[in-house]
Every structure is written in C-alpha cells, then in structure tokens.
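User: hey, got a sec? need Aspartyl-phosphate phosphatase Spo0E family protein folded
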Amino acid sequence: MQTANKLQNIMYEMEKKRSELQSFALVNGFTHPVTIRLSQELDELFNVYTEQKTSIHKK
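Assistant: Yep! Here you go:
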C-alpha cells in the first residue's frame, strides 16, 4: 500500500474514532473509563499518523 493511502486510511480511522469518542462522551461523561480508552485510542492513531507523515519527509 502506498504511503499516501496509508495516511488517508489513518485519517479515516481517526475521524471515525473521534466521532465515536464524542458520541460516547456526551452520553456517558468525559471521565467514564470507556471515554478515556477511546481517547487513548485516538491519541495512538494520531501518533501513528505523525510517525508515517514524518517518515515521508525523511525520504
């Protein structure tokens, strides 16, 4: 898979996770354990995206 496609896929997953996080947090609260887990998953996706993007610029 090309790097640009990887970045697009990661961005898509980030948007899905952000939407899921928002919906869950609004109903269950921002300190609910699942809200925190979803936030951490979003953070991890962001980290992967940043690493991928950085590797593109190093080439």
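Quick note: The chain is about 90% helix and 0% strand. Let me know if you need anything else on Aspartyl-phosphate phosphatase Spo0E family protein.
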